[in-house]
Write a structure and sequence with these properties.
It is elongated and about 65 Å long. The longest helix has 18 residues, at about 295-310. Helices cover about 50% and strands about 10% of the residues. The chain has helices spanning about 35-45, 60-65, 85-100, 115-125, 150-170, 200-205, 210-220, 225-240, 245-255, 260-275, 275-290, 295-310, 315-329, and strands at about 50, 55, 75-80, 105-110, 135-140, 140-145. It has 2 domains: about 25-155, Glutaredoxin (3-Layer(aba) Sandwich), CATH 3.40.30; about 195-329, Serine Threonine Protein Phosphatase 5, Tetratricopeptide repeat. A 6-stranded mixed beta sheet has the order 1-2-4-3-5-6, with helices on both faces. By secondary structure, it is an alpha/beta fold. A hairpin with a 2-residue loop joins strand 5 (about 135-140) and strand 6 (about 140-145).
């Protein structure tokens, strides 16, 4: 996500250096003497809950919050009411978006004044001292997203692009809603989130790619307008086609046969899994430009399938559609 220029003087301009190690932030799993129910409660789904998909971070629940990133993305929003009031507004906006995105990410609000040890470890790990500060943690791998407090619409657009990119890499899990009900009230009757997608997502988590394709196909057959199911089906097929493929061998085969549609589409799939979405699109557009008849149709259909995997509203898809039109006409 691009960020506006920071007009005020802050320490350590926040860049995008890539993944960093947050292992130093994790707390020991075993609670100390007397921790008892408090430590256990912090690890439970309701511990520190302030919203359906938002948790107030403390030293007891932080390790589990990081572990929950193994199945679906976690965002960490660092803020301070006293030092950077704008950071509080950003955390509030992210909390609203967490509800809007319905489990695509779980938000951890980190009050650096209340948990200075966590804040200090994060600043050291990410080499960032400025506030606001937001980091993405996916499958245990943290990556800084942005500093400053962009408008809500810019946040929404940027996060949508981030999660679309994660989906192209097969990371499609969702968090279940937390209970934010007052004491004495129960949400045990609340239905699970998007139960239609549960069989397909469970199959993906079990590495049953054939099963995931079959489950997503059922959803698409039942409702061809279900864009999320269509995207899930397209991504599951990418994973299915590339299972067990040797990347170096595939690239060598494609380099030696530039007009071999099978070789080129396979490398395009591998590029998608590696996050090189534009490379995948451009490769297939060039194949379409060079081929004709049945080969061209196969390459075009494959490219359209990759569009669905990324999301038809993604700017990279919109640009690639213009490139496709140019190649065809």
């Amino acid at each position: 996500m691009s960020t506006p220029q920071r007009p005020r003087n802050q320490q350590a301009a926040f860049t995008r250096p890539g993944a960093v190690d947050l292992s130093a932030l994790k707390q020991p799993a075993a609670p100390g003497p007397g921790a008892g129910a408090d430590a256990a409660g912090g690890g439970a789904p309701g511990g520190g809950v302030v919203g359906a998909y938002t948790v107030q971070v403390d030293e007891q629940n932080f390790q589990q919050l990081l572990e929950q990133s193994m199945t679906a993305p976690v965002l960490l929003s660092f803020y301070s009411p006293t030092r950077a009031p704008a950071s509080v507004g950003l955390a509030d906006d992210l909390q609203s978006l967490a509800d809007e995105f319905e489990g695509k990410f779980l938000l951890g609000r980190v009050d650096i004044d209340a948990v200075p040890q966590i804040a200090q470890a994060a600043a050291q790990a990410m080499q960032a001292q400025a506030l606001p500060l937001v980091a993405l943690v996916a499958q245990g791998r943290p990556m800084p997203l942005f500093e400053d407090a962009p408008p809500l619409e810019e946040l929404r657009t940027g996060l949508t692009q981030v999660f679309q990119q994660l989906a192209t890499q097969g990371f499609t899990g969702r968090h279940q809603p937390r209970s934010a009900a007052p004491a004495g009230e129960s949400d045990s009757d609340e239905p699970p989130l998007d139960p239609r997608y549960a069989p397909a997502q469970n199959a993906l988590e079990a590495n049953d790619l054939d099963g995931a394709v079959a489950e997503y196909q059922k959803l698409v057959d039942a409702n061809p307008a279900d864009a999320e199911a269509a995207g899930g089906l397209a991504m599951a097929k990418v994973l299915q086609r590339t299972q067990g493929v040797n990347l170096q061998t595939a690239r060598e085969s494609a380099a030696s046969a530039p007009d071999d549609v099978d070789a080129q589409t396979l490398v395009a799939d591998l590029d998608m899994l590696g996050g090189h979405v534009e490379d995948a699109f451009n490769r297939l557009i060039e194949v379409i430009r060079r081929t004709a008849d049945a080969d061209r149709d196969r390459a075009r259909n494959h490219l359209i399938g990759l569009f669905a995997a990324v999301g038809n509203d993604d700017p990279r898809v919109l640009a690639a559609r213009r490139g496709l039109a140019s190649a065809l006409f």
